[in-house]
Amino acid sequence: MATFFITGGCGFIGQWLTKRLIEEDHEVTIYDIKADQSIMGASPRVKIIKGRTDDAESLTRALKSAKPETLVHLAALLSATAEGNPQDAYSVNIASAWPLWSAARSADVKSILFASTAAVYGPGSEKAREDRYHIPSTIYGISKIYGEMVGTWFSRTYGIDFAAFRYASVIGPGRGEGGASAYTSLIVQKAAEGEPYTVQVPARAQMPIVYVKDAVDATLFVHRNIRSLDNEEMIFNVPGISPGPTAGQLARIVKRKIPKARIDFKPDEKIARIVDSWARDLDSERIARAGWKPVYSKLDVLVDDFVREVTSMGKDRRA
């Protein structure tokens, strides 16, 4: 059994990660502005603390109280929200990074897992690789590069194990609005729920994707093997399907599986511009070399499981 402290644990990836950790008999403390006690039911293995990541005093107190072995930093303002509120994005995504890593050090945390993003890369026809420097075009991407750099420095200086994950657009049941890439998930989610959905990017829009189950699995794979991996290569691209499908291709496969799906396109210029600024293909050689590969690397298989999960959740709510 291990102990984990997850910032933003009530969010989309956080819930799936917590579920997996509970299944593996680990202890989890969630630190989140939502503090929704109903999220994980009545599991005695989960404690939820309400707080903000830009409140250094509260965060330090929570970490010292929880005494976790591993900190997983998921909390952040996502791309579209961050672009609309850059000052808030600075406070939450950037200014809080140093106090958080410092708090982790003072709480004797052994390892830090950091949710970065493919948004750190700019557009280009070549596969984006971790060892090639890029200048992000969004405050969201900039904030993640900063978090990676500070985390790497803390690891090198103080000996805390550190790994960052440049996830492709993470899709799966429960993802909401907020990020410019949310359409990759909502095209499937809304159709499976029987609701109409208007896509805010052109049908040609394209980005790599990763199913949330694979994103969680990659994160925990690295965590289990963190001491045996190359300390100089602890930033990982995590795609499941790359290059990913275009929005039009994704809509067509969903309509083939759910003939009654109501999906139309009404591009929003700001959202489309953000999506166009990101890389369309991620190199996954580094994490493959470490020994991990995605289970849901075929779009048909991914969409089938996604729809099955949404349908199952709907039945559970009605029961």
Describe what is shown at a glance:
This protein has helices spanning 12-23, 56-66, 79-84, 86-95, 97-106, 139-158, 183-192, 212-225, 247-257, 269-276, 285-290, 299-318, and strands spanning 3-7, 27-32, 46-50, 70-73, 111-117, 161-167, 169-171, 197-199, 209-211, 235-238, 263-265. By secondary structure, it is an alpha/beta fold.
Task: Describe the structure in your own words.
It is a single chain. This protein has 319 residues and is of the alpha/beta class. It has one domain: NAD(P)-binding Rossmann-like Domain (Rossmann fold). The chain has 12 helices and 11 strands. The strands form 3 sheets. It has a 7-stranded parallel β-sheet with strand order 3-2-1-4-5-6-10, sandwiched between helices. Strands 7-9 form a two-stranded parallel sheet. The longest helix has 20 residues, at 139-158.
Descriptive keywords:
12 helices; 43% helix; two-stranded parallel ribbon; globular; alpha/beta; 16% strand; 319 residues; Rossmann fold
Uncertain segments are: none
- Radius of gyration computed on alpha carbons: 19 Å
Shape: globular
End-to-end span in angstroms? 33 Å
Chain-wise SSE layout:
Layout: E1 3-7, H1 12-23, E2 27-32, E3 46-50, H2 56-66, E4 70-73, H3 79-84, H4 86-95, H5 97-106, E5 111-117, H6 139-158, E6 161-167, E7 169-171, H7 183-192, E8 197-199, E9 209-211, H8 212-225, E10 235-238, H9 247-257, E11 263-265, H10 269-276, H11 285-290, H12 299-318
Parallel strand pairs: 1-2, 1-4, 2-3, 4-5, 5-6, 6-10, 7-9, 8-11
Helix pairs in contact: 1-8, 2-5, 4-6, 5-6, 7-9, 9-12
